[in-house]
Amino acid sequence: MSLYAVQVSYTPAAWATLIKKPQDRVTAVAQAIEKLGGKLVSSWMTFGDYDCLLILDMADQVAAASFAIAVAAGGACKAVKTTPLLSVEQGIEALKKAGSSGYEPPR
Asked: Topology of 2-99 in CATH?
């Protein structure tokens, strides 16, 4: 399983619906994630460029992409951004591998 951060921005129409009928979308979102074999780790309402932040534990990139596509296709979000997350240990492992890759920048 791998962790992903998913950020979404609602459309003005979605905001109008939520203002008219405030609702907790976590249950509906969690059910969709579980159907794709994943788990909703945490969820947050935010402000700024994005309106919600979800942390998902998904089986693979295909499952994570499937969730992002389903959300985007739903029409309530004007933007969906999915970011794979690395633990600090995974980041250090990547740094070590990068250092031994032999890559040479253009000179």
From this structure: Alpha-Beta Plaits (3.30.70)
